[in-house]
Prior knowledge:
The complex is a heterodimer of chains A (288) and B (239).
Chain A: H1 2-33, H2 40-58, H3 66-89, H4 93-115, E1 130-133, E2 136-139, H5 140-162, H6 164-174, H7 176-181, H8 186-208, H9 218-233, H10 238-259, H11 264-278
Antiparallel strand pairs in A: 1-2
Helix pairs in contact in A: 1-5, 1-8, 1-9, 1-10, 2-4, 2-8, 2-9, 3-4, 3-8, 5-6, 5-8, 6-8, 9-10, 9-11, 10-11
Chain B: E1 6-17, E2 20-31, E3 35-39, H1 46-53, E4 61-66, E5 69-70, H2 76-81, E6 84-87, H3 99-106, H4 112-125, H5 127-131, H6 142-154, E7 160-164, H7 172-187, E8 191-195, H8 199-205, E9 208-213, E10 216-221, H9 223-228, H10 230-237
Parallel strand pairs in B: 3-8, 3-9, 6-7, 7-8
Antiparallel strand pairs in B: 1-2, 1-4, 4-5, 9-10
Helix pairs in contact in B: 3-6
Amino acid sequence: MSAxxxxxxxxxxxxxxxxxxxxxxxxxxxxxxxxxxxxHGSLLMLAMYGVLLLFERTGTxxxxxxxxxxxxxxxxxxxxxxxxxGPARHGRDENTILATLGISIVIENLAAWYFKSDTHQxxxxxxxxxxxxxxxxxxxPRLLALAGxxxxxxxxxxxxxHSDTGRAIxxxxxxxxxxxxxxxxxxxxxxxxxGIGLACLGAAACFLLPAFYVSPMVGHSFVLLAFTVxxxxxxxxxxxxxxxxxLIGIVESLGGLLLGESLGQxxxxxxxxxxxxxxxxxxFGHHA
Amino acid sequence: MNRAEPLLxxxxxxxxxxxxxxxRAITLSVRAGEIVALLGSNGAGKSxxxxxxxxxxxxxxxxxxxxxxxxxxxxxxxxxxAGLVQVPEGRRIFPNLSVQDNxxxxxYRRGRAARQANLAAVIERFPRLGERARQAAGTLSxxxxxxxxxxxxxxxxxxxxxxxxxxxxxxxxxxxxxxxLISQLHRQGLAxxxxxxxxxxSLALASRAYVLENGAMAFSGTPAQLLASxxxxxxxxxx
Lengths: 288, 239
């Protein structure tokens, strides 16, 4: 039992770091635009297919694909918010829910039509390499996913805290009227935030693909957990997403160890319900 | 600059929210270096006028000439960049950001060098904000927050400063400090459009005044003319 604990923990951390990165994009979009991006899962799936195509058509290594996928997803996000989701709002939040839901339906069906519903995987030279970490064997891609996701989260946090754009994003998130008064183009900042949220998905896709399969429905499993992470950590909280993501990853992994693989997520939802009952603003959330 | 040169000239302006018209046939001007008071009871349309001036509402008729150029319908960021800057009602500072970050965002439309120079100048004027540069702006007192809102607007290098109800919620002592600051900014040559509830103090500083009533201009002239009219005094100013 105890011998299996360390590998399970490590495994949980690697998945948790990916959940955190996906949740970070979701929480940034929520924190700034106050909308829930229901297309987050299908956009993750789209990014994963992007990595797959780059690998199959051009032989680009998934980690090298970061250079393409992160900016590409940023541009896609900027355009979606600026030209579709933003204009569709007409001052009502329900409209953005419908717009993001609509986008997700379109993307998923296009993917099912073009790629069929088969699952795809890529085979890299290092895909099956195992690393011995203090007695636990872990696949190299998973270790790289952990490191990559943590570095991405740290870079994003630094950017938001210290850059001019990051300052403007924080200002718009809290006080859009004041931001307009100082000459910040709020519609632009909204689109940039949405773009950054999707850039997180681009990075997550590159870290995921060497170790995971992709199918048109793959986004659902990740995003259900990412939503849980965002609510658990506190809507709009960066620290919350990071801690919540790692926590959910570990709970899921330990749940799988104790209850059997297929029941692993029960633990996640027990924790989730507990948080909703006893601390509804989330671990790091502010009171609304 | 010639003190008589018009900075802002509004002619025949109509504006409102969607199909609901609020302002009709508004005419107003502000010349370089003068303080103009904009008065009127709640709901008279003062805020609608300010929002239209700052590019948050698009006028349905009329013109807004800023330095000789029609800016009606221009974006709020280009209006700020051109030097027409407001201190919004309710201050609208960024409570989650540090005092210094609030100030730096005031110069968002300016270059890096200009930003640092503006910051140094503003902190010299408001040493209290310098002492609290690293503190979250939301932890400042109400008076300090109003000073921060004005300092943030000064960071944008305004040619005309629009102050929308700056004394709202301040203690009487802070109100005196505020009017002293307004008079100091005026002496240094800044033009100010002042929307205020403290009518007597505003009229003492202003060279001209306008009174809005039900979306139209009910009076424009000097403070002396306004105070001489019993009817206007009683109806709009309550003094």
